[in-house]
């Protein structure tokens, strides 16, 4: 299954607690879309968030965020895993 990295450039009021809650909501709805959100990284200072996700398509990955909390990524890039 394709692997994607999504980027949220400026999430207003970003906190570790808020991003953890949004990720939990992603996990609750992802199965409906055939998606698996794996990890996330964030920077409170800039409001940036990065999410690593296995998904059948970009559209499916975006649908999970849209349904779970409405914070759709600014960029969604297909990536390959390296060492």
Can you tell me about this structure?
By secondary structure, this protein is of the alpha+beta class. The protein has a single domain, classed as ORF SCO4226, nickel-binding ferredoxin-like monomer (Alpha-Beta Plaits, 2-Layer Sandwich). Helix content is 30%, strand content 31%. The chain has two helices and four strands. It has a four-stranded antiparallel sheet with strand order 2-3-1-4, covered by helices on one side. Helix 1 packs across helix 2. The longest helix is centred in the first third of the chain and has 14 residues. The protein is globular. The mean pLDDT is 96.
Compile the SSE list and pairings:
Elements: E1 3-8, H1 16-29, E2 36-43, E3 48-54, H2 58-68, E4 75-79
Antiparallel strand pairs: 1-3, 1-4, 2-3
Helix pairs in contact: 1-2
**Oligomeric state of this protein:** single chain
Overall pLDDT: 96
Structural class, please? Answer: alpha+beta
If helices are DSSP runs of H or I spanning 4 or more residues, what is the number of helices?
2
Side by side, the strands of the main sheet go: 2-3-1-4
What's the CATH class label? Answer: Alpha Beta
In the CATH hierarchy, what is the architecture at level 2? 2-Layer Sandwich
Largest sheet: 4 strands, antiparallel
> Helix fraction?
25-40%
CATH superfamily: ORF SCO4226, nickel-binding ferredoxin-like monomer
CATH topology: Alpha-Beta Plaits
Task: Offer a concise description of the structure.
Helix content is 30%, strand content 31%.
Fill in the keyword field for this structure.
alpha+beta, Alpha-Beta Plaits, four-stranded antiparallel sheet, 31% strand
